Structure formats: C-alpha cells, structure tokens
Amino acid sequence: KTITGQSLSGSTDQPCAMISGEKANAAGQSAANSSLCVPGSLDPAKVRGKIVVCTRGSNGRVAKGEVVKDAGGVGMVLCNAAASGDDVSADPHIIPAAHCSYSQCIDIFNYLQSDPSPMGAIKTRDAELGVKPSPVMAAFSSRGPNTITPQILKPDIIAPGVNVIAAYSQEVSPTGLASDSRRVAYMVESGTSMSCPHVAGIAGLLRAKYPKWNPNMVYSAIMTTANRGGNDGVGIRDETGSAATPFSYGSGHVNPVRALDPGLVYDTTTHDYLNFICSLRPTDTQGLLPVSLPLPLDILWTLLIRVFHGTDSNPFQCSKGANRPEDLNYPSISVPCLPSSGSFTVKRRVRNVGGGAASYTVSITQPAGVTVIVDPSTVSFDGKNPDEEKHFKVTFQVYDPVKAANYVFGGIEWSDGKHHVWSPIVATTKCG
C-alpha cells in the first residue's frame, strides 16, 4: 500500500524494517516518551537500520528525525495525533521522512500491529498541483470569536500560508538544528509570516489600480470577494475534515482577481472608528492595552491623533445618542448578546465602485434559529457621484433560543448580476 505524506527530505535506498516509537523505548523510558521520539527515549538496538514511526507532539517535528538518526534509524514516518487531523507540513528533515495525516496513520499503525515483520520504504515524488480539497484550514491558524471585541468578527480573511516557497537566510540551517550543516537559498515555510505577504501583495495590487482608495476600501474589496468553497465544490474544511466556519476563515480565502472588481465597498471612515471607540466605554483592560483605562476621551484622542488625523474637532466629541460597536461600518457582521425576544438592528452602508449606474439586490443565508431581514432589499446608484453611498439596516430576530444560544452563522450577499458582495454573519444570544 502506498500512503502519500509530505516532506522535503530524500528517499530511503531500499525497503527497510519498520518499528513504532512506542515499541522502541530505551531502558528506563516510557512508551509514551518513545512514541513521541523525544531525546534519549529510543533504544539504538531496536531502532538501528529501521524506519521509526513517531507521533507528533512535545518536541519539534525535525527534532524527532534527529533523535531517530542519533539512535541509528534510517528514516522516520511522522504521524499526526487526532488533534492535528490532516494538518501536515513539508519539513527539511535530516533523514528520509514523511509527515502523514491522522487518518493515514491509523492504517500505518494497524499494519505495524498486524505484521510481525513490517517493511516500508520512503520515496520522493514531485509536488502536485490542484490537490483536492483545497484550501484547508491549518491547525495553527487562529480561530474566533474575537475575545476582546466580539462585535467585530475575527479572523477577517485567510490566505495561502502552508508550505510556501520563500527566500531563506544562509546564515542558519534549514532545520535550525546545530547538527545540520546544510545551507539553502530557498525553503518551504508555513505560518502567518507566509499568508501576510500574500494579502499585502493583493493590497498593493488594488492600490496600483485604485490609487485614491483608502485602506478600508482595500480590505473591504479583499473581504467581500473572498472564496468560501474549496476546489472540490464543498465548503472550506478545517484540519480534521469537518466543515469550517467564519471563526476559522472569516470572509473566506482571498481571491485577488475578484478583489480587483468588487462592485461595492464598505468605506469605514475616521468618524466611524472614533464613534466605535466611544461605544466601547472601556473600564478594565487587564493589561490588554499599552495604557491604563478608563481615560478621558480628550487624552485618548491625543494618543491616537497621529492615526486619526483630519477630523473636524479636536478633541473628538462622541456623537449624541447610543453608539454601538455593532454599527461600525465593517464588511462583516458579528452580533453577540442577541435578545431572546424582540429584535436587534445593525446599520451598514456601501459605496458603488463598479462604475456607472447599478442596482443591487440582497440575498440572505439565514443563521440557525435566527431570522435576518435586510431593509431595503435593493439599493440603486445613479452612477453620477463616485462617492455615492447607500445605507441599509440588518435586523435580527431569534425564533429558536436553543439554537441561537451557541454561535450561528449566515451571511448577506449584494449582487447586480455581475458582482457578488458577501458579508458573513455571526450571532449568538450569549453575552460576554
């Protein structure tokens, strides 16, 4: 049987005997330690000349290969535990190795237990394009909800951040291990440090086409045009293979081509942000901010003046009436603390950047247990004023408090037949 894993290492020269780390424990070492291939846990007499199957966790992925090599092993299969699911990485292991998913490793362990003399070989193969399903959420990707301000959905967006080819310093080895003398000009890297440049590049592309756009229009275009499905026709999955939610992917996976022609944008102004600050009325930051609050708004304004320049008052005067964080003109909608009876309404406005006259009609993906109504359901632009904006309201009414007690997900999409402007919705009756 052939199982496909991931690695940047070479091949074993020939089929070799295999052993699980659990059964290769050294004297005085527990099977739990040796199954993880932590330093000193493997018995060289049991490992020498064999491919060792190690479980992910405790020490680093490439460090496990070093432990196997030091014990005389010739290769390693790195197996995910259940928590890591299908999240695998192409690492530059110092011995032939393959990182395999949890579901694949069930088969591997079954083989090791059923065959008294298990054999295996690790063989390299070319990278594949168009792998399905794709994209899939990485296990290390941060998840919502937003614990500081739950009225703002986080994350905003996802972008390619796993196994990305990137320039690499030749001052250090590709593994970072002291025993690794290799030097490379390029590496395969994973993490936020890989996804951020993709988004920054798309933002630069948008600014090149629309030099007068402000940052809020740029991120609105990126968010509202993102993909919510995979290349297999199914919604984006998490690392376990289950359906992901906006708490995993926000508005979706970036689509730079669609972002270049978003149709509508949510333009969040300086006054919007200042009223948002007014609405928070912070009383206890517990060290989350670099200053102690509460602060008088004039002092807060002084701290933020370099960012919020160009307003017509200094210090900024909070608008009279109720300012609510849910009303920030953001491209997504998050409503915690929904009333179990009655209704709750948030406000939004959109600007036509599609050029010319246009009429957009809304479609609604209803969250479980909640009825969502958008008023008006159609917005029309005459195309004469490039700064023309249309206001609308989104009203929530809970009809099943049991379902709505947990976070539920939906969305609204404005379309003129050509453009599709999506905003995810997250809602719950829970507060705090």
From TrEMBL:
GO terms for molecular function: serine-type endopeptidase activity. Gene3D superfamilies: 2.60.40.2310, 3.50.30.30, Peptidase S8/S53 domain. It comes from the Eukaryota. GO terms for biological process: proteolysis. Keywords: Hydrolase, Protease, Serine protease, Signal. Residues 85-252 form the Peptidase S8/S53 domain. The keyword Hydrolase applies. Pfam families: fn3_6 (PF17766), Peptidase_S8 (PF00082). InterPro entries: Peptidase_S8/S53_dom, Peptidase_S8/S53_dom_sf, Peptidase_S8_Ser-AS, SBT, Subtilisin-like_FN3. Belongs to the peptidase S8 family. This is Subtilisin-like protease fibronectin type-III domain-containing protein. It comes from Aegilops tauschii subsp. strangulata.
